[in-house]
Design brief:
This is NAD(P)H-binding protein. It comes from Paenibacillus silvestris. The chain has about 250 residues and is an alpha/beta fold. The protein is built from 8 helices and 12 strands. Strands 2-1-3-4-5-9-12 form a 7-stranded parallel β-sheet, sandwiched between helices. A 3-stranded mixed β-sheet has the order 6-7-11. α3 links the parallel β3 and β4. It is globular. The protein starts with a strand and ends with a helix.
């Protein structure tokens, strides 16, 4: 079938496009760099015409509060309108586990707005909420670094590798829309402080990690279970330690 991947040149998008093509699907990789822009609408109707499924794994170029809200609202509105006009049967969107409890952040308020627009649309949908990716642990540490010190809370995290996210999304594309939210998480639950400590140790990074429950995660003061699934979730296989060894 014809599948359009919005954000097809990004971390998840590239992997998903490859996965779907290997399964024999006709896949359109869509992104501004490829001449298809979900914000301006450039090339969008043509790309979506004849598609059965649209997968949105795009991300905002700016995380400034108003800019990120404008991006997700405009992009999602344009996508859903084009999909409705083209008779698309399934809209699959990648979101974030725990979004409801992270609304102190403008980014997560924007993701929540995106989810609400999808739910209100007439296009059948599946929202896949994933936990934080292994690939972003370094940026998490950097965000909370002062000098040679990294401050992290002990709130739980259950990170996942991007390869497993892309594989799961390919599965959801082939399934019927759930018209709801599914959670996706890695196999290990640990403290955010422990995750970053393991990363620093593996990379022989000399920064000192200090556990600080008041340290914020991208500006959000976390509760113990803010970043992990609270109910049923699909659990993937790749362990953080295996990924660390492979990436060193």
């Amino acid at each position: 079938m014809k599948i359009v991947v919005i954000g097809g040149s990004g971390l998840i998008g590239k992997k998903l496009v490859n996965n779907l093509r290997e399964l024999g699907h006709n896949v359109v990789a869509a992104s501004p760099s490829l001449g298809i822009n979900s914000v301006t609408g450039e090339g969008l109707a043509e790309a979506i015409s004849g598609a059965e499924v649209v997968v949105d794994v795009s991300n905002a170029p700016s995380w400034e509060d108003q800019a990120v809200l404008d991006f997700f609202e405009t992009s999602t509105r344009n996508l859903l309108e084009a999909e409705a006009a083209a008779g698309v049967k399934h809209h699959v969107a990648l979101s974030v586990v725990g979004t409801d409890g992270l609304l102190e952040s403008g980014y997560f308020r924007a993701k929540m707005a995106q989810e609400e627009m999808i739910k209100a649309s007439k296009v059948p949908y599946t929202i896949v909420r994933a936990t934080q990716f292994f690939e972003f642990v370094e940026s998490i540490a950097q965000f909370s670094t002062e000098g040679q010190t990294v401050r992290m809370p002990s709130a739980y995290i259950q990170p996942i590798v991007s390869d497993d996210v892309a594989a799961a999304l390919a599965d959801y594309v082939a399934e019927a829309p759930v018209n709801g939210i599914v959670d996706l998480a890695g196999p290990e639950r640990m403290g955010l402080n422990e995750l970053v400590r393991r990363f620093l140790t593996a990379k022989k990074d000399a920064r000192e990690l200090i556990t600080d429950e008041n340290s914020r995660y991208y500006g959000v003061l976390l509760k113990q279970h803010s970043l992990v699934p609270l109910g049923e979730a699909r659990i993937t296989a790749t362990r953080f330690e295996d990924w660390l060894q492979a990436s060193n």
